[in-house]
Amino acid sequence: MRLIRNLVRDKLGITSLLFLVLVMLMGVFAPIIAPHDPLAINMPLRYASPSWEHLLGNDHLGRDVLSRILYGIRASVLWIFLALIISVCIGTVMGFIAGYYRGIVDSIIMRICDVMLSFPVYVITIAIVGILGVGLENILFAFVLMKWAWFARIIRTSVLQYIEMEYVKYARTIGLSHRSIILRHILPLTFSDIAVVASSSMSSMILQISGLSFLGLGIKAPNAEWGMMLSEAREVMFTRPELMIAPGVAIISVVIGFNFLSDSLQVALNPELRQPSKIIE
Amino acid sequence: MLKVDHVDKSYNNNGFFKSSSRKILEDVSFECSQGECLGIIGESGSGKSTLGRLLIGIERPERGSIMINGESIFKRKNRKSKISVVFQDYRSSINPFFTVEDAILEPLRAINIEENLAVIIDKLLIQVGLSPSYKHKYPHELSGGEAQRVCIARAISTEPSYILFDEAISSLDVSIQLQILDLLKELKNSYKMGYIFITHDIQAATYICDRLLIFKDGRVQETIPTKDLHLVESPYAKKLLKNLILF
């Protein structure tokens, strides 16, 4: 509750949160709010400029850009967000186990992480897509498989740093359980690290999915995805540069939204970074 | 009553090819009865902080036992509300995300006290010489002495059998040290708790402790009541006293 109250006070934070929620809702309800079928080809309207009928114009096959952007939210934001949450959760659990209990468990988990991290993400993704077939879900699976190791390593380091704190020793002295020590004393402090790596990964994952879609490994051709829209626009970059604006702005604003939100979350969580509150006394 | 019985502790240096172990504590035994203040005096590296970690039950010795009222302190349940601790570093002693109130409530919540917690907190804060308005402050808004007082309030909140002070006053400046020592004396008289005072500061120790335990190289050199301090026998204790700068 305190977190929400502090976040509301931070205008930038609450704006980015509302923006991201709005974007995600638009993605979920794309079939209802999209003005046109994103796949309907309409050759007479090739490269048409924005009009009242097609607010963001039409692409090289005369498809409505606005509708494609709205449908693209599903692949570019919602699914990536889900994959990110899953890999952050796995990474957090593994990082906490390794950092908190240390010893042999730590060594085993860290060696597994080393193995995962020694493969380049793109290569392993292409390998997994090669085995399992083309499709967004396989790329996301590959991402979860690769990224958790990265999160686990960072979170472990963060846990190691806080576990030596004297309030943790105090909590152990008075006989608190490991669970409540982790939940009350370590997790809130590591959250800022988790938020930073997660939000920056969100951006890089959106861009990587775009890259892989461009290679033809992600979303299959007619379906909308922001990265793919961008690469389609790239072909006519010098004659019709305006086609890059819509997907470009969409990617940038979502990425910026996540970055601002993670900054604000850190401030909202950490009393040391917060402005002295005026309510007290 | 706290009973330390033939405790050994060593740390392993796990190298890649060979591991060596270094003995920190060797055959340490002593007792501390309820309401007594025992000072553990030793120089840096003598193993007194390791002993401190064993005494609060967060590390285990290789050999020997530490019992409180006949029960091992290495079981979490046995430590609850019986042992507490105040550390040297007041900056990291309180979770930065906790208010003073949250910090003091932590041990009280752990033992499910039924009474009115708000009243208890106000009372504790007054007892350690802070105004009840401090309870909404965060640790970074407190000075060193204030933070240490909050730690003391937190430590006495459950009226434990004994409290360990691990260099608890060493990082404070001299005038505040004296205030804290006086506060501790006062609290001891009203609560009848045992204190174990780990310090390198022999003057502070003689000011508050009933009995001193001189510690060197992981061994107990000598145990002596504070009033007979001039009668020490071991050569190390004599040297320690002689080197003391009196002012």
Automatic annotation (TrEMBL), chain A:
Domain ABC transmembrane type-1 residue range list: 73-262
Keywords, alphabetical: Cell membrane, Membrane, Transmembrane, Transmembrane helix, Transport
Topology within the bilayer: Multi-pass membrane protein
Subcellular location field: Cell membrane
GO cellular component, one term: plasma membrane
Transmembrane segments: 12-34, 77-100, 112-133, 205-222, 243-261
Keyword 4Fe-4S: no
Transmembrane recorded as keyword: yes
GO aspect biological process, one term: transmembrane transport
Family: Belongs to the binding-protein-dependent transport system permease family.
Family annotation (NCBIfam families): opine_perm_CntC (NF047573), Opp1C (NF045473)
Protein name (Swiss-Prot/TrEMBL): Peptide ABC transporter permease
From TrEMBL, chain B:
UniProt GO MF annotations: ATP binding; ATP hydrolysis activity
PROSITE patterns documented for this protein: ABC_TRANSPORTER_1, ABC_TRANSPORTER_2
SMART domains attached to this UniProt entry: AAA
Pfam families: ABC_tran
Family annotation (SUPFAM superfamilies): P-loop containing nucleoside triphosphate hydrolases
Protein's UniProt keywords contain ATP-binding: yes
Domain of life of the organism encoding this protein: Bacteria
Keyword entries, A-Z: ATP-binding, Nucleotide-binding, Transport
A Gene Ontology biological process term: transmembrane transport
ABC transporter domain segment(s): 2-242
Family according to the record: Belongs to the ABC transporter superfamily.
Cross-referenced PANTHER family: D,D-DIPEPTIDE TRANSPORT ATP-BINDING PROTEIN DDPF-RELATED, TRANSPORT ATP-BINDING PROTEIN
Name listed for the protein in its UniProt record: Peptide ABC transporter ATP-binding protein
Organism annotation: Ureibacillus sinduriensis BLB-1 = JCM 15800
Organism lineage: Bacteria, Bacillati, Bacillota, Bacilli, Bacillales
